[in-house]
Amino acid sequence: MARENIIEIHHLQKHFGDLEVLKNIEFHVDKGEVITIIGSSGSGKSTLLRCINLLEMPDGGEILYHGNDILKHGIDINAHRTHVGMVFQNFNLFHNKNVLDNCMIGQIKVLKRSKQEAKEKALYYLEKVGMQDFAHAGSTQLSGGQKQRVAIARALCMDPEVLLFDEPTSALDPEMVGGILDVMKQLAQEGLTMIVVTHEMAFAKDVSNRVIFMDQGVIAEEGTPQEIFEHPKQERTKEFLHRFRSAGQ
Amino acid sequence: MEYILMAAAGDGFLSKTWNVFVKYQSLFLGAIQSTLLVAFIGTIVGLLIGLVIGGLRAITSHQDHNQKMGAKLLYKLIYGITGIYVGIFRGTPMMVQAMFLYYTFFAPIFHWSPITSAMVIISVNTGAYMAEIMRSGIQSVDNGQLEGARSIGMTSFQTMLYIVLPQAIKNSFPSIGNEFVVNIKDSCVLNCIQFSELFFVAKSVQGSIFSYAEPFLIVGILYLILTLVTSSILGLIEKRINHQKSSYPASISAPQSGVLKG
Ligand SMILES: Nc1ncnc2c1ncn2[C@@H]1O[C@H](COP(=O)(O)OP(=O)(O)OP(=O)(O)O)[C@@H](O)[C@H]1O
Ligand SMILES: [Mg+2]
Questions:
Q1: How far, CA to CA in Å, does A44 sit from each of A26, A51, A202, A238, B230?
Q2: Chain B residues with beta carbon closer than 8 angstroms to that of A183
Q3: Is A222 helix (H, G, I), strand (E, B) or coil?
Q4: 8 Å CB contact between B242 and A141
């Protein structure tokens, strides 16, 4: 199968005040790939992810989506965001809407789908994540794991080509983590292109095609899970994994 | 209520008061209507003004470092102008605003009646307070809500309309309702432009019977009834809002792993 390049990032830079958070990031994503981004706190993982759907505006470089630079003027940012969805650590479900409406509003207001079509699609994805029985529940009444399932369904309802996950299990009780990872695994098997920032090393090992290790605003090392976890080349990768393993014990 | 008052009245002051009320009851009841009408219109129109002005102020209060010079200037300008409006109408007595606007513009130029002018003045005055209520209400909405909306491609306007404002209104409902209660009482200063609300009627009655005590006791009681009833209705609505019905399935256990159905 020919590789189809969806996202290509060149010389990406971002700073907050004097703090250089992303330094010259080079990075690409092929269709159907599952990429995990690991790295210590503050290394710029979230910022990189947020730049990809423009929740954060980069200061320099280019982000090509199917060859078009989305940082150029005249690019419809909102249309781009429907193609590149996002799942947040803190879910960010709309408090003023129930589960079903959370999944419908974007379809109706942004994609201009009919109510009927939006509802069918919402129920389809809610069933997929195991939340169909909760369609009419208030979004603030759910457990963390349930909220994250709904948030994933909400993102899928927009039919994104790429889905970004920023530590989707970090705010969950330990017993909820497995369920969310299973949902993500299933999506990966179905061929969805995903970029996942995570501290779940087992997930990174088992599910991803490629692992990116970030350190202090740069991609310090990148490779297959085997390369990164079994034979890391860089000293800082080894150190990070070592620290991580000893912390995990 | 009438029986209770009558029973309590006896022969002296209270019975005299009761007689004054009965004699002028059509005036008093009419004044209740116009007081409520002006307070209600003022609160609703004020809320609409507050939504727009407060929304603008919330949006323009912080400048993004990604913004271009032109946008930054426009933001500063809008924030400044809306700030002047809010500052003037909150910083001066409504009575002064009424006297100035009515006798300078509304009556001589627009030929507005006192009640129309009263509605406009109380709306614009309430709007300034509502703008601040809505601005802080909007700013209290969690930033994650905005990011959630932006992440599915909603425009800032859609985000404001469908996500932020509903939550801001819900969060600030007690303050919004309080403005209504305040308006019921403070509309009394609009007697200065010949708007015939409760206070104005009390003054006219006092002029006819040459006594202050009875008419002002009457309107005092009427104001108290209006504010108490209004507050308890608002309290009920608030309860309803906070316990919005939603059907939660009987089994509230989280779905277990591996539930993905293709
Ligand atoms: N909006 C912001 N304003 C200022 N500084 C920021 C902002 N967002 C992030 N930073 C800083 O940028 C750096 C990188 O942050 P980022 O959130 O990308 O790290 P991360 O790798 O996702 O870390 P974590 O694992 O803790 O989530 C940090 O030092 C952080 O404090
Ligand atoms: Mg992060």
A1: 14, 10, 21, 19, 53
A2: 259-260
A3: strand
A4: no
Interface test with B, best of A46, A50, A95, A146 (most B CBs within 10 A): A95
Residue A107, token pair as written in the block: 């379809």
pLDDT, one tens digit per residue, over B79-119 is 999 999 999 999 999 999 999 999 999 999 999 999 999 99
Which residue in this structure is represented by tokens 């996202």?
A: A7
Token code pair at residue A47: 């910022």
pLDDT at B71: 84
**B25 exposure class (CB count in 10 Å sphere: 0-12, 13-18, 19+):** exposed
Would you state the structure tokens that stand for residue A61, as one six-digit string?
Answer: 């470089």
ipTM: 0.92
Instruction: Report yes or no: A181 and A169 within 8 Å, Cβ to Cβ.
Output: yes
Q: Decide if pLDDT at B262 tops 50.
A: no
Mean pLDDT of B43-61: 95
A87 within 8 A of A168, measured Cβ to Cβ: yes
Which helix (H) or strand (E) segment is B234 a member of? helix B213-242
Amino acid in position B200: F
Residue with tokens 């039919």: A159
Residue A71 contacts residue A62 (beta carbons within 8 Å) = yes
Question: What count of other Cβ atoms lies within 10 Å of the Cβ of residue B53?
Answer: 23
- The residues that bridge with A213 in the sheet, in sequence order, are A38, A221
Q: Tell me how close the Cα of A102 comes to any Cα of chain B, in angstroms.
A: 10
The CA distance from A234 to A97, in Å, is 47
Q: Minimal Cα–Cα distance from A134 to chain B, Å?
A: 6
Residues 6-25 of A with CB under 8 A from B: none
Taking phi over 0 as left and psi of -120 to 50 as alpha, with beta for the rest, A130 belongs to left
pLDDT at A215 over 80: yes
Structure tokens at A116: 């009927």
Q: Where are the beta strands (DSSP E) in chain A?
A: 5-16, 19-30, 34-39, 60-65, 68-69, 84-87, 162-166, 193-197, 210-215, 218-223
Domain spanning B12-245: CATH superfamily: MetI-like (1.10.3720.10)
Q: What is the C-alpha radius of gyration for chain A, rounded to an integer number of angstroms?
A: 18
Nearest alpha carbon to residue A196 among A212, A183, A182: A212
Contacts of B136 (CB under 8 A, 6+ apart): B172
pLDDT in tens, A3-37: 789 999 999 999 998 999 999 999 999 999 999 99
Q: For chain A, what percent of residues have pLDDT higher than 90?
A: 92
- Going by C-beta distance under 8 Å and a sequence separation of 6 or more, which residues neighbour residue B173? B237, B238, B241
Residue B217 has pLDDT above 80, yes or no: yes
Q: Which two tokens stand for residue A142?
A: 């759910």
Answer yes or no: do A92 and B261 touch at CB < 8 A.
no
Q: Is B69 exposed, middle or buried (0-12, 13-18, 19+ CB in 10 A)?
A: exposed
- Separation of B231 CA from ligand 1 center, angstroms? 46
Token pair 């603008």 is found at B56
Cα B141 to the center of its chain, rounded Å: 21
